[in-house]
Amino acid sequence: MSSLCLVLKGILFCRGKRQVGSLCLGKLSSIFSHREREVGGGEHDGKVMENKRMEKVVRIILLWLALVVYVRKCGVAACLLILQQRLRINRSTYTLDFYANRKHFREMIYANDATCHNQIRMYRATFDRLCDMLTSIGGLRPTRNMLVDEQVAMFLHILAHHVKNRVIQFEFRRSAESISRTFNRVLA
Fold first, then answer.
1. Residue 17 DSSP label
2. Where are the domains of the chain?
3. Is residue 140 within 8 Å of 185, Cβ to Cβ?
4. At what angle do helices 176-187 and 165-172 cross, to 10 degrees?
5. CB atoms within 10 A of CB 153
6. What is the four-CA torsion angle of 99, 101, 102, 105, rounded to 10 degrees?
7. Could you read off the pLDDT of 63-119 as tens digits, one per residue?
8. Which sequence ranges are marked TM in the entry (predicted)?
9. CA-CA distances (angstroms) from residue 173 to 7, 45, 54, 145?
10. Is the pLDDT of residue 41 over 70?
11. Quick one: 149 exposed, middle or buried, by C-beta within 10 A (0-12, 13-18, 19+)?
12. Can you give the pTM of this predicted structure?
């Protein structure tokens, strides 16, 4: 049997056992030392040199295999870490969402009198006076997640446009439950 066949058998044996690294090198070293004894030690220097070269080639191949396995494990670990971070709810995301929602609300109501009138059928000065009256006389209070002006704007937008809860969910970026609760709170 040629030394190349022995090397291939050694690699296939090691790959079949899922052994990469020192264990596999030990098996291949034993194959080469057995082959040297068959050749007869120093009689055939060409065969010995060929065996040593083949052993170096096999070690290089095994190091590449070990590197591939290591890179694969690192890739899997990185993917799992990214997936775990995506599934985790971050507190700062909620804070940024609050400010993004507030910015969207300001653009919708406080941009200018024309947009305010188009959205809630009321000018900005009148809207501010109504919010002040509902706060002082009506007892309307801001909640943890929604200020008084946004509550009143939702209420007026529903009355002005006769839209459904789903439309308000999209425009004000709130849940159906919070919109319903807000509408009833302002109505009372």
1. T
2. 3-87, 91-187
3. yes
4. 100
5. 25
6. 160
7. 898 899 999 999 898 888 888 777 776 555 555 577 888 888 889 889 899 999 999
8. 61-83
9. 66, 82, 68, 12
10. no
11. buried
12. 0.50
Quickly tell me which residue has 């030690």 as its tokens. 41
User: Could you count the other beta carbons within 10 Å of the beta carbon of residue 58?
Assistant: 22
The residue written with tokens 């220097």 in the block is 45
List the structure tokens of 13.
């044996």
